[in-house]
Amino acid sequence: DIQSPLLDRVYTKLIRNPFVLSFLNFLDLISGHKIIKNLDNYLDKKEDCKEFEGFKEFMQDRLSSKYSCDYFIQGHFHQNKTLQLKDFTYINLAAFACNQRYFIVKSSKDVKLLEEISYKK
Fold it and tell me: Which of 2, 48, 75, 116 is the most buried (most CB within 10 A)?
């Protein structure tokens, strides 16, 4: 979540804190799971697999010349695209909800940088 607004970064930090999560789990339990039900309703309406028009240009403007690397891997926008930008290769992972796949990323010393695995029930 690079370059996220300050409030988003604060929210992300809080929601990943084990003490905050325990407190929220307790509130959810005593409320008859109203928190989880509201979240499920919200997420059911959200369109996870929407294509981001102008994504390459957006990422070029956002990232070019700011990072010194060979590869930049991010999942935030969930576009399932690999882009060759000016200074590096940008890999944007898909949302698991869209294609039922997860990824294994190894260090650059390994031959395989990104491995895509399909989930099968």
Answer: 75
